[in-house]
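Hi P.,

Sorry for the delay on this. The queue was packed all week, but I finally got your sequence through. Input first:
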Amino acid sequence: MDHQGTGEIDFNKMKMWLNLHSYKHFPGELFPIIDRLNDTRMDYYSTMSGDFETLTFTGKVSSFFVHGSDTLFHTTAYYKLVDDFITVNANNATSDDFRLYAQASKLWDDPTFDILEVKNVPIDSLSGNAAVRWLSRNFRTDFFLSGPLNFPSAKLNMVNRQSEDVVFALSGNVVNLLEPNLKFNGRFRLLFQPMEVSGRFLLKETANRVNLQLIAPDVAEGRLSIGLQNDSSFIGNFQLKKTALNRYLGRFPGLQQAISEGFIWGEAQFSGTTNQPKIDFNFRGDRFIINENGYYSALLRGVYRKTGLTLKEARIDHNERPIFNAHFNLNMQNNQCEGRFQGERIESNFLASTIFNDSKLIRGDSRYDISIRGLFERPEIWGLVIMHDGVLFDQAFRNLTINFRDSIPATATLFQIDKHIFNILNFIYVDKKGYTVEAKGTFAVDPGAANDLRINVKGNILSEVPLIIEYFRNPNCVGELSMHVTGTRENPRLNAGRLIIYNGSLEFESVIPKLTDIRADVELKEGERFVRIHTLEGKLENRWVRIGNLPASAIKTVKLQPWNFRDIGLNFGVLTLETDPKGIPLSIPGLMNPGDIGYFATDGMQPGEKFYFAGPIDLPHVRGKGTIYESRVTFPFLITEETDTLEESVVMDFLMNIDWDVQVVAGLSNRYFVDIPAVIGEVYMDLSIDEVSQGLHFTGRLIDESFRVEGEVESTRGRVEYLDVNFRVEKFGAIFNRFELYPEVYGRAWTTVRDSTNFPKDIYLVLYAVDPETKQEVSRGRWEDFRFKLVSSDPTIGETQENVLSYLGYSIDNLSKKAGNVGLTLTENYLIRPLVRPLERTLERSLKLDYVRLQSSITSNLFYYGFQNRFKFLENPNYYRNPLNNNFDPALLLLQSSEVTLGKYLLRDIYLTYSGQLVSVYDESKLGLNHKFGLEYRLLRNTLLEFEYDKFQFNPEYYSRRALQDWRIRLRHSFNF
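Then the structure:
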């Protein structure tokens, strides 16, 4: 080391100062590991000032390690010397965490370190070795020394930078630290978990050599002898004994969870000279179980020289079948590498289960061939991966081929995986049914980096839809899709594309029946953002439906927002929905019984408009007019497990969030049904909704309090069941106003009975409410407040409900018998009706009828028949007796009094009905039908002309012969107030 400087001593004041510059140049081959110190200049700038009288001196030393124009290491140490005691405190300008602190005494007689502490030595700035730099980035190195200068105690710790846990500790005693024959004898600990590796460490210097010995009982041992002369021998060996790897993985939770079993062992031989060292290594692994898959074995054999690294053999086997075979060579003189990685007949499901812990992710036999060549920092990588007859994401495929070339930007390195950009020369995927995906372009590993891909898809384009949204099922079509995709994976951008579909079909989880005959032509032209829907149509139950779109600016009658997906830069404009004039089938949970289907036809709200689905995305808007046909609806909405589940689905969430502006009117064959609790049992209403009704206007969102309904619906036909009596509808209606969710309702139904003189009398079931202010009954009331009462057609003064009930047969004398009939009717509705209603819907669709009603008496007949042998023991045997004909098969008696009602529109204003009731014929062992035919003709909007003919087969013991047929003509007119 060379020194030069200036200084001054004032003997009068006994003071001095000194400036000193010391420097040294290290040759290029001096340090094998901290190699960045090779060919480096070391500079020290020292200052000192002090007082000889008090023997107190202070100063600082600044040190620099410079390689070319780069400063590798810079530190400044401040010191204070008082007599023979010195304190030193240093930090590093290139590493804020570096710290040196020392206290030493007896400097002139017996130098002793009270403490020497060096923390976070910046080894990564002094070494270009990748392994050393990785260790330095992840682990902090701290060094401690104390005791006499030539016989101190030393300790070294390596600390995990994230957890602050000590992972390696070395401690011992140093002999002759600054004198010949240095010796360091100590112990080391590798603090793995749940077991640690510990042993002895011995470093000994002789006149010509340095000998290093490492012994870890039952785990490893090694010896190394290095000559101190130039180009001296380099001799040694290291042996790793067969060790269960999973015992030492506790600090690596990912590996500990993945590797449940496995053994490693091997050896390394050190030879050559200090100038040309050589390390031959041969390590093996066996019986590895990784993510519950085994057994895996591994072999790593090669040679390390100063000139480079050669992997002669690197292999991984699965159950003795090779799945990875590699040859690799790294020339450290020119930093060039060359290698090849291959595998054939690989069972991909084992690899997927091993790597991704999912054996179903991908399955099938595969092979790959990957090559690497060029500058080690940024080599060229290219390869080919082929799979045949496999399964990917539960989709069987015939062929999967990927031909790629990897590129690494000039600012990145091989080990910065997220910086790699793959040039996809050819990607081909063909499934078992001929569905083909081809792609070319650039694909970045970093989710935020740019991509540029051109993708072409042919075959069943719709097959990918259920993978995105599970609501869609069993897709099938013939189609083509071309796309030019740029942007990033986090924010992809479709620059251009075209979708063409022929002869497609798609099923849905609920609400909508199967869609068939799908045709589509959707296009995004290069340089545009508006996606044009040239064609998008199909058929639902042979009724066509068509979706189109328009730019928002093209709609002049109303201001609507487009479907603008800003994240991907696409504008779908305003969607339009057109349907068959007869409507398309829908099954709406909550509004209909499960399995029921109605038909919905669309139109524009105003002339020149269409039925619109508009944006924005976070608040979709629907505007238009809809006509419903052949639907059975109810209100309030049904609450069932199915609707609860569907409300959580994507479809129901979407419907709940829509801002509605829709006018709904009734077409033909719509019915309203509801069960309303009554004093005894329920009132079951099944009303035909008049197509001349005003309709309802829905506005606002279902998900919040803005939803409103306005308008009126009315029914002038249908039936109401109460107790065991069927009433025919005269008129029922509901009036909605936009300030209340529930409507005001009104109406009444009628039935006919005959008095003791056989004269017919009409009985009305009237809906009423009590006005909260006047306490008087009114004929129209709020949904929450209405009630039912019975009224006769010719009421007398003081007529009571008991009087009207007596007309229906509910007199005091036969109340007990009627109570039994009522109870059995309620039981029938509870047990049998849920089973019969789906059959009614099926008959309506298959027979093309507008109304089918099946009313059985199985429950009551079964009850009576079961008690007929025991009724004589009861106090009132008539309570359980039904006047049945007992001359034929008793099983047929279960059908006694069952009834079927059919309805059909012959023309828009002409409605034909038929009812048939099954009865036993007097003195004959057979069943007959009581027939009832009805014809209804709507003369005007509120005027109906009704014809009715009844033909009975009653027992004349109870009915007169002239009562076996009946004609009726009614003219009905309703008034709106």
